[in-house]
Amino acid sequence: MSDSEGCIFCRIVAGELPAEIVREDELTVAFMDINPATRGHALVVTRAHHADLLELPERELHAAACAAQELGRRARALLNADGVNILSSIGAAAWQTVAHFHIHVIPRYKDDPLRLPWLPEAGDAEQIARAARALRAQDGRFAAQMCSERR
After folding, report:
1. Annotated catalytic, 102?
2. pTM of this prediction?
3. Domain spans of the chain?
4. 29 forms bridges with which residues in the sheet?
5. Which of 41, 49, 100, 102 is catalytic?
6. What are phi and psi of 22, to 5 degrees?
7. If DSSP codes are grouped into helix, strand and coil, which group holds residue 23?
8. Predicted confidence band at 132 (pLDDT cuts at 50, 70, 90)?
């Protein structure tokens, strides 16, 4: 069985499962989350099956980001959201529950009960510096995978 067989999001995109679709284009479909975190919580998915953002071709990433941006603007204007969380998870450890790339567009309201599990607090300066050095490494492994500049 391929990764896309049985994928709930692939089945929604194919019209095999019902969904409240709120936006679609050539590369993406956006629909309401059936387990919403807040009023207006929507998902942007790619039409093609990709497990997560790290597998996503640049063209589809751009289309999904633009769709999420548009939905965020709509949420603020049409649902009177006070803010918007834009979230995409990669892997179970990061709370990804469906292995098909998606972006959560979560309208936020001053009185909503949603609380993310991360509470910012000061980190260890040396640990931050070590991670920064590792991420700056210029060993060439990622150069071919870098997004090209938009002109």
Report:
1. yes
2. 0.83
3. 8-121
4. 24, 45
5. 102
6. -115, -10
7. strand
8. confident
User: If phi over 0 gives left and psi between -120 and 50 gives alpha, with beta otherwise, what is residue 108?
Assistant: beta
Give 79-111 as a 3 state SS string.
CCCCEEEEECCCCHHHCCCCCCCEEEEEEECCC
- CA–CA separation, 101 and 13 (whole Å): 13
The torsion region of residue 31 among left (phi > 0), alpha (psi -120 to 50) and beta comes to: beta
- Here the tokens at position 36 are 């919403």
Instruction: List the CATH code of the domain at 8-121.
Output: 3.30.428.10
DSSP letters, 37-76, are SSTT-EEEEESS--SSGGG--HHHHHHHHHHHHHHHHHHH
Higher pLDDT, 31 or 116: 31
Extract the tokens encoding 75.
């949420």
Cα(85)–Cα(105) distance, integer angstroms: 6
Of 68-72, 90-94, 114-118, which has the strongest mean pLDDT? 68-72
Compute the distance between CA of residue 33 and CA of residue 134 in angstroms, rounded to an integer: 37
